[in-house]
Amino acid sequence: MAKISASVYTSHVPAIGAAIDNGKTSDDYWKPLFAGYDFSKQWAAKNTPDVILLVYNDHASAFDANLVPTFAIATGDEFQPADEGWGPRPVPPVKGHSALAAHIAQSVIQDDFDLTVVNTLDVDHGLTVPLSLMFGQPESWPCRVIPVAVNVVLFPPPSGSRCFDLGKALRRAVDSFDEDLDVQIWGTGGMSHQLQGPRAGLINSEFDNEFLDRLVDDAAALAQKPHIDYVRLAGSEGVELVMWLIARGAMDDSVSLKHRFYHVPASNTAVGHLILENESED
Amino acid sequence: MPLNKPYGDIPGTTIFDADMARKGFHLNQFCMSLMKASNRDRFKENERAYIDEWPMTAEQKQAVLDRDYNKMIAQGGNIYFLAKIFSSDGLSFQYAASTMTGVSEDDYKKMMLEGGRAPAGNLYLKEHESG
Fold it and tell me: Would residue A259 show up in a list of annotated catalytic residues for this protein?
């Protein structure tokens, strides 16, 4: 049977991707950020799963203003890096797992989460920057990836509790897949940031660190946090953090913390990162 | 009954909700068109002629020509869509953010390096005005 063994949480700032692609990771500006992922790269090399369910949001790349799915799962075999206006990132195409994705879609919809099913999907920095942070610059990605796209651009995004419950439904779907597969679920985006208007540049490290604390051992209550708290306290784009609750919902109630990192700034954004394993794995 | 929108009193912030998306639909779709190199070339060659192909309001068009991002946001533009304009101009997110906050790019970068804009005084319109 397939099982979820671990989860990774990380910001997905586009400038991080540009720093990797342009060989700037040892610059003074970027060095402290990438140092926070040294452990993560070793962990990822030792704990490479068969499949990652990668929860992220599209930033007006694959989905425009014409079509805004709240939750979408990609069932295709391969996904190309999106051209976000300055050419696609020089990273490998992302190989999907269409059989598991189709199984998840059917299971989760029967479980009352009405996912949109996508076949062809160009994946933007929201999905590829986390892969680069964890796996570096390989010629091909070391595992399959199923993109799970969440709307956090058009307000309101799904609530924290809805996201947390979707994670539980994803867990049930993976648990009921017959093939023996080691599956991880990654939640991406955040942490505090605001990219627009006169308040652009807002960072709230107190909010972010409390979120990191509670995601580990108080996640069900954290999922009750209303949207207004995110947008007021963590910036209009800080609401991306609801996506971390999807990944956390798919994990055991009690998890083991393997790594934690927090850094300000990456461009306009506070970067947060956690690695959690299910304790039943040890 | 009007919907509950508790985010109206966050200073310097426009939440891109369904009403704003309705208002900004054509502006945002114009921005999306700049993802194609051929459209970027046509836009750069004659900005006025290119935007006149889109059913935007005169105010939206003027805000685009002026690169007034706060005005574009007030008229339904969303930052991830508007990013296609400043990317076409070869400018960074930090540059665009600095124009929206009314400081130079260097000052904005310095603020971010020093930990970003502090929450204190920036969470509620009331404290913002009195602060």
Answer: no
Detail the DSSP E strand segments found in A37-141. 51-56, 71-74, 78-79, 94-95, 116-118
Catalytic residue among A97, A125, A263, A273: A125
Please give the pLDDT value at position A265: 96
At A176-196, the pLDDT tens digits run: 999 999 999 999 999 999 999
The span from the CA of B79 to the CA of B62, in Å, is 17
Chain B positions in Cβ-Cβ contact with residue A89 (cut-off 8 Å): none
Chain B 87-126, CB below 8 Å of chain A: which residues?
87-88, 93-94, 97, 100-102, 108, 111-113, 115-119, 122-124
Q: Which amino acid is at A57?
A: N
Cβ distance B41 to B92 under 8 Å? no
Is A268:B93 a contact under the CB 8 Å cutoff?
yes
Compute how many other C-beta atoms are within 10 angstroms of the C-beta atom of residue A88. Answer: 15
pTM over 0.90: yes
Return the number of other C-beta atoms located less than 10 Å from residue B99's C-beta: 18
Peptide bond into A265 cis (omega under 30): yes
Summarised one tens digit per residue, pLDDT across range B39-91 is 999 999 999 999 999 999 999 999 999 999 999 999 999 999 999 999 999 99
Q: Which CATH code of 2.40.50.150, 2.40.50.870, 1.10.700.10, 2.60.40.1120 fits the domain covering B18-91?
A: 1.10.700.10
Min distance A82 CA to chain B CA atoms (Å)? 10
Q: Is A125 a catalytic residue?
A: yes
Instruction: Please indicate whether, in this complex, the C-beta atoms of A200 and B101 are within 8 angstroms of each other.
Output: yes
